[in-house]
Amino acid sequence: MKTILVPIDANKEADLVIKKALEVAEVFDAQVHLMHATSEGHSKEDSDFGSENLEPENLSGHEKEMKNLNVFKSKFLDAGINCEVHLAKGVADLEILGLAERLAADLIIIGLIQHSALYKLFVGSVSNEVIKATKIPVLLIPVDHK
């Protein structure tokens, strides 16, 4: 296992996912790719727009997300783990799956937030959609969402 993809959302639960990803990456001496997908104006219905990676010159309005990614990246670098960050614009699960494929990721580590059945019915779950659509092993990190 050499490449681990760690999709994170900018919330307090991300710390738990990062902690576990650090542990796994150290054990396997793996490279980590942190990513965050912003879904501004995109839905699955118009998912034919394709993936749009946000380059530094296109970061206007996304500085906070990039700052968060770089804060997490520094934790990996401090531990001696090679880490890269990716900020994508599009539907989260599709962006995660696309990047995992492009990186030839060996593992996806993602947080699992428990939502009510009603929430899942109307909104869905990114982690659930990733699990259903990938052949790459997925490590789910359960997080409290209170």
From TrEMBL:
Task: Supply the CDD domains for this chain.
Answer: USP-like
Q: Which segments constitute the UspA domain?
A: 1-142
Output the Gene3D superfamilies linked to this UniProt entry.
Answer: HUPs
Family (UniProt): Belongs to the universal stress protein A family.
Name assigned to this protein: Universal stress protein
